[in-house]
């Protein structure tokens, strides 16, 4: 399975997998594969949530302000 | 010739005298604005401050005027911060205002209402411009004071609900003269930075004056000009600022804003759990279906099925057999009854039965029944009666005239 690039994608893929699994046209072998992928995605999503830690950065506003110019209204 | 001085000298002298009067160099004057004009080219503000009995001219230069959080208007009561001196060219005594502040609730409200109406007319509050927030932002830009309680509230709520997000802080000053340009710069910087998905402009609670900067037209326009959605959360629930009207979303407090900006991880965990459950249930029921289909085709099942067909046939055969037997029995019974009847009839017709009553039969030696008239004299015959035979020889045969029963009796008796 290709790892999702973020939580949101993981969740979207999970939802898509459920739809595929619900389809009558999905053959047995494929559904086994999809099921395994779903299990990995659930694992990924939960791990991502568990390990998430808020990151805070600062931005220097003076530079941007100067670049934008401070002309009168 | 009398001593005289030139006008310029006079004005210069007066200016010097005024400059030595310390209170004039740093004062706050309260008055009502009249004759207000904004010079179309220079951007300087010219107006007169007056009270019931006096008036004084006022100037506010462009670079100061830009910092105003409201639009001064005639009739507005303001506090003018600055110095009073003489404008030498015109000999005009006037105030050079560095800062204006609406004085009294009425005046402030007037300024607020006027700006609100102006921006509303321009369409800055129009709901069609409101952009939806991303449901799962990756980065949130925050315009607020680095040391304020608002930032702490936001960090706390987001850490709990959605710690996967990055916060990009534009530290600004939210109070005082430099607050307005600082906030505008913060908003623009975060809008220009590629990282944030949305911008949160926030400040904790404070007095109406503390929050007044968020009624700034320039901040409103900066927020309106953003490519990214802007969320405003200034003060408490009851505090509404111009920024709140312009923002794509207004939150009552910084904490509430944080809640509105990010999803709740508890809810998402539940969603993932339910998704997992559904997937599990789904595959199980699919397996059941496949298994059932397969087991229908197993040899045992096929044999079982054949057996049951055989059983059915056997039962059918048994039923047919019984029906046949019943029909046969009825048929045999009927035949028996016919036979008995015939036997009874036959018994009645038995010629030997007559012998018991004394009749006899006449046979030749071979046992052939003989009629009396055909007998020959000397012929050996056997007379059969009930219980005995008599061997006889015919002496004579007499033919009787009348073929009657008496004659038969006679002939027999003669024997």
Can you lay out the helices and strands and say which pair or pack?
The complex is a heterodimer of chains A (73) and B (415).
Chain A: H1 7-22, H2 28-51, E1 55-58, H3 61-68
Helix pairs in contact in A: 1-2
Chain B: H1 7-20, H2 22-25, E1 27-38, E2 45-50, E3 55-60, H3 62-65, E4 77-87, E5 92-102, H4 104-122, E6 139-144, H5 149-161, E7 166-171, H6 179-192, E8 198-203, H7 217-224, E9 230-234, H8 242-246, E10 249-250, H9 254-261, H10 265-296, H11 299-348, H12 351-355, E11 361-364, E12 380-385, E13 388-393, H13 405-414
Parallel strand pairs in B: 3-5, 6-7, 6-8, 8-9, 9-10
Antiparallel strand pairs in B: 1-2, 1-4, 2-3, 4-5, 11-12, 12-13
How is this structure best described in words?
The complex is a heterodimer of chains A (73) and B (415). With 73 residues, chain A is mostly helical. Chain A has three helices and one strand; from the N terminus they run H-H-E-H. Chain A is elongated and about 60 Å long. Residues 64-73 of chain A have low confidence and may be disordered. Chain B folds into four domains: 7-120, Nucleic acid-binding proteins (OB fold (Dihydrolipoamide Acetyltransferase, E2P), Beta Barrel), CATH 2.40.50.140; 137-263, Succinyl-CoA synthetase domains (Rossmann fold, 3-Layer(aba) Sandwich); 265-304; 354-414, no CATH class. With 415 residues, chain B is an alpha/beta fold. Chain B is rod-shaped and about 235 Å long. Chain B has helices spanning 7-20, 22-25, 62-65, 104-122, 149-161, 179-192, 217-224, 242-246, 254-261, 265-296, 299-348, 351-355, 405-414, and strands at residues 27-38, 45-50, 55-60, 77-87, 92-102, 139-144, 166-171, 198-203, 230-234, 249-250, 361-364, 380-385, 388-393. The model of chain B is unreliable at 406-415 (pLDDT under 50). In chain B, the strands form three sheets. In chain B, strands 1-2-3-5-4 form a five-stranded mixed beta barrel. The longest helix of chain B is centred in the C-terminal third of the chain and has 50 residues, at 299-348. Chain B starts with 6 loop residues before the first helix and ends with a helix. Classes of the chains: A mainly alpha (73), B alpha/beta (415). The interface between A and B is large, with 38 and 48 residues. Strand 1 of chain A pairs parallel with strand 7 (166-171) of chain B, so a sheet runs across the interface.
